[in-house]
Automatic annotation (TrEMBL):
<keyword id="KW-0963">Cytoplasm</keyword>
<protein>
    <recommendedName>
        <fullName>Ribosomal RNA small subunit methyltransferase G</fullName>
        <ecNumber>2.1.1.-</ecNumber>
    </recommendedName>
</protein>
<keyword id="KW-0808">Transferase</keyword>
<dbReference type="GO" id="GO:0005829">
    <property type="term" value="C:cytosol"/>
</dbReference>
<keyword id="KW-0698">rRNA processing</keyword>
<keyword id="KW-0949">S-adenosyl-L-methionine</keyword>
<dbReference type="InterPro" id="IPR003682">
    <property type="entry name" value="rRNA_ssu_MeTfrase_G"/>
</dbReference>
<keyword id="KW-0489">Methyltransferase</keyword>
<feature type="binding site">
    <location>
        <position position="87"/>
    </location>
    <ligand>
        <name>S-adenosyl-L-methionine</name>
    </ligand>
</feature>
<feature type="binding site">
    <location>
        <position position="152"/>
    </location>
    <ligand>
        <name>S-adenosyl-L-methionine</name>
    </ligand>
</feature>
<dbReference type="Pfam" id="PF02527">
    <property type="entry name" value="GidB"/>
</dbReference>
<feature type="binding site">
    <location>
        <begin position="133"/>
        <end position="134"/>
    </location>
    <ligand>
        <name>S-adenosyl-L-methionine</name>
    </ligand>
</feature>
<dbReference type="GO" id="GO:0070043">
    <property type="term" value="F:rRNA (guanine-N7-)-methyltransferase activity"/>
</dbReference>
<feature type="binding site">
    <location>
        <position position="82"/>
    </location>
    <ligand>
        <name>S-adenosyl-L-methionine</name>
    </ligand>
</feature>
<dbReference type="InterPro" id="IPR029063">
    <property type="entry name" value="SAM-dependent_MTases_sf"/>
</dbReference>
<comment type="function">
    <text>Specifically methylates the N7 position of a guanine in 16S rRNA.</text>
</comment>
<comment type="similarity">
    <text>Belongs to the methyltransferase superfamily. RNA methyltransferase RsmG family.</text>
</comment>
């Protein structure tokens, strides 16, 4: 591992008040190396420079602690919907090993990468599953089984809520990672969130360290069970977002 990687990562972890052991820092470095290695033959990320991966993937993923302070002490069951190359789920698992994490993606090639990462990093109580949110959100093994549903996927909040809220147990939270100004999008999604059984509790907005990248964590609490009519069949949530 390079000293430059460790120094930059430690400096940004300090801003989140996260302390990692040496083996965890090594796991992050190995994850970075694996990401770059696989990215040569499949499209996992457009971000490949070490400094940018640290800030825009690793630290961004871990910034969840701004919205969920008790991450450090609870062994939450979490699903990461549309995880792609494993963000935010794998960084959270490395930093907080007691979490139980399900990584979900609709592309089988990405699942192969995620399983390789899980094995290479020797992570336990984490699984990668292939499927669409519209289908798995109706599966009793996953519907309303999670304390937290997370997503960094790019979709409007109404659509993303329909994909994600069915996974959250009543009393749990759906927390999307959103970029830029979100007031208008948030206003447009409030009724959809209500229909799905939730409401917006708070929004944490901040800049990623050393960048002008604005990030918002929208903390949506699930007040009661989601109606059985949601999620609608594949394609509808994105073509006709709830209003």
């Amino acid at each position: 591992m390079t000293g430059a990687f460790e120094e930059k990562f430690q400096n940004e972890l300090n801003l989140l008040s996260i302390e990692l052991k040496n083996y965890q820092i090594n796991q992050f470095y190995d994850y970075f190396q694996l990401l770059i290695e696989w990215n040569k033959f499949m499209n996992l990320t457009a971000i490949t420079e070490m400094d940018e991966v640290i800030t825009k993937h690793f630290v961004d993923s871990l910034s969840l602690v701004k919205a969920v302070k008790e991450m450090r002490t609870k062994n939450y069951r979490i699903i990461d919907v549309g995880t792609g190359a494993g963000f935010p789920g794998i960084p959270l698992k490395i930093a907080f090993p007691d979490l139980k994490i399900t990584l979900m993606d609709s592309l089988n090639k990405r699942i192969n990468f995620l399983n390789e990462a899980i094995n290479r990093l020797e992570l336990k109580e984490i699984e990668a599953i292939h499927g669409r949110a519209e289908d798995l959100g109706r599966d009793p093994l996953h519907r309303e089984q999670y304390d937290l549903c997370l997503s960094r996927a790019v979709a409007n909040l109404s659509t993303l809520s329909e994909y994600c809220m069915p996974f959250v147990k009543p009393g749990g939270y759906f927390i999307p990672y959103k970029s830029g100004k979100i007031e208008e999008e948030l206003g447009a999604a409030k009724h959809a969130i209500f229909l799905l059984g939730g409401n917006v509790e708070e929004v944490k907005t901040f800049l990623l360290p050393g960048t002008e990248v604005e990030r918002s964590l929208v903390k949506i609490v699930k007040n009661h069970g989601t109606s059985k009519k949601y999620p609608r069949k594949a394609g509808l949530p994105s073509k006709e977002p709830l209003k």
